[in-house]
Design goal:
The chain is flat, with a radius of gyration of 25 Å. It is an alpha+beta fold and 387 residues long. Strands 3, 4, 5, 6, 7, 9, 10 and 11 form an eight-stranded antiparallel sheet that branches. A seven-stranded antiparallel sheet has the order 8-12-14-19-18-15-21. A two-stranded antiparallel ribbon has the order 1-2. It has helices at 4-7, 12-18, 23-29, 50-57, 64-69, 110-118, 327-330, 334-337, and strands at residues 41-43, 85-87, 120-123, 131-135, 147-151, 161-177, 180-187, 202-203, 212-229, 238-242, 254-257, 283-287, 292-293, 298-301, 314-319, 323-325, 342-344, 348-358, 363-370, 374-375, 379-381.
């Protein structure tokens, strides 16, 4: 789709010098991205998100970057604050100094994705990480105030804080069928081996285990600990005091250094940089063990930073069309026909989702809107894909 600048044949210098691109002019030009009921201006309020604000101006909120291209006086589009006065054609940043004491407006509601921002991450492997080998008094579980014993921590780790995490999901592509890919999501036990864990966050895709093309292992935050004693005097394990009233730690949990800023919550909605091969980008799992996802539900998807996906990337979600038997022509049952005599039906649109955290080959996304529920295996396409 042509950008707003190319559509109106304006350069950034022209916009900055004259500011003549008006809301009325855009509406008259018939730009399908402009809402017919848009306000002339909008005062940013606490609790707003970029998606919410864009929805007041545009029928397609992922075109928000187009507004910024027409407003070069805004040096950092990531930093919008309560009190700022926004216009589609000209953004008048008139907020007073006291407004800057508040946090800038995020891309999506952070409270709804906080567990996945703070408590979850996906890595390519975890076997090399230090791990818990025992718990105080030979207990099976340990919580705040107890100590656990970890193997593999460096001698210099005394005084350092570590996240205690648990490998609990393995993501992989299994095989290719008719040009597509079959996804696999598997629960893991305390050793990182496949099992079923009733405490899982995700609804897993059920597929045979012929795993290849590993997408990553999900690590779930369990607790935080401080190293109080290293491996000294022939002792082969470091002592770690548990600091939080979080989940109980068990043997096999892994340790990683605390990251002071593990994510960036401020980003702008935008389309993907490239179109993926069909069935390469799919929904891997739905959070909270739900069977379906609707607006404000979290999903895991099968593309990440190595695929060019970053925070703010918006996808449309699609149920892949079925291959139905042409009963009128062939007069056979599904079992007898096999792949012969089938008709491929169109994909069916379900909604939009925006990525809020990425890893190498897996990302987390929030479903922003929808006309029907989204399920595991649904296809991800450009947000402007026709439906």
């Amino acid at each position: 789709m042509a950008s707003l600048l190319s559509r109106f044949n304006l350069s950034l210098k022209t916009v900055a010098a004259t500011a003549v691109l008006t809301v009325a002019g855009l509406a008259i030009a018939g730009n399908p991205g402009i809402r017919p009921d848009h306000p002339d201006t909008y005062v940013v309020k606490k609790g707003d998100t970029l998606w919410d604000i864009a929805g007041k101006f545009l029928s397609r909120p992922w075109l928000w970057p187009e507004i910024w291209q027409a407003n070069p006086q805004v040096k950092n589009p990531h930093l919008i604050y309560p009190g700022d006065v926004l216009s589609l054609a000209y953004i008048n940043r008139t907020a007073e100094a006291q407004h800057r004491a508040e946090a800038p407006i995020p891309g999506i509601p952070l409270a709804q994705v906080e567990p996945w921002l703070k408590d979850m991450r996906v890595v390519n492997s975890f076997d090399q990480l230090p791990y818990v080998v025992g718990i105080e008094d030979d207990r099976l579980r340990g919580s705040q105030g107890y100590v656990v014993y970890a193997k593999g921590l460096p001698a210099s780790a005394v005084g350092q804080r570590f996240l205690i995490v648990r490998p609990n999901v393995r993501y992989a592509r299994l095989d290719r069928r008719q040009g597509g890919e079959i996804m696999d999501t598997a629960d893991l036990d305390f050793r990182g081996k496949r099992t079923i864990d009733f405490q899982q966050f995700w609804t897993s895709a059920i597929t045979p285990d012929r795993g290849h093309d590993l997408l990553g292992f999900e690590l779930q935050r369990v607790n935080v600990g401080t190293v109080t004693r290293g491996e000294v005097g022939g002792i082969e394990a470091s002592t770690v005091r548990l600091d939080e009233a979080g989940r109980e730690v068990r043997e096999g949990d892994r340790l990683i250094p605390v990251d002071a800023q593990p994510y960036d919550p401020y980003f702008v909605p935008h389309p993907p940089r490239a179109q993926f091969e069909y069935r390469h980008a799919q929904v891997l799992a739905v959070a909270d063990r739900l069977r379906t996802a609707g607006p404000r539900d979290v999903i895991a998807i099968s593309v990440g930073s190595q695929d060019g996906v970053d925070n703010g990337t918006v996808f449309s979600l699609w149920r892949m069309g079925s291959n139905k038997v042409d009963r009128v022509k062939y007069k056979r049952t599904e079992e007898l026909v096999g792949n012969y005599g089938r008709v491929r039906l169109p994909d069916e649109f379900s909604g939009h989702a925006m990525v809020f955290r990425t890893f190498d080959h897996v990302s987390y996304a929030l479903v922003m809107d929808g006309i029907k529920p989204t399920e595991v295996g649904y296809e991800l396409k450009h947000p402007d894909a026709p439906y």
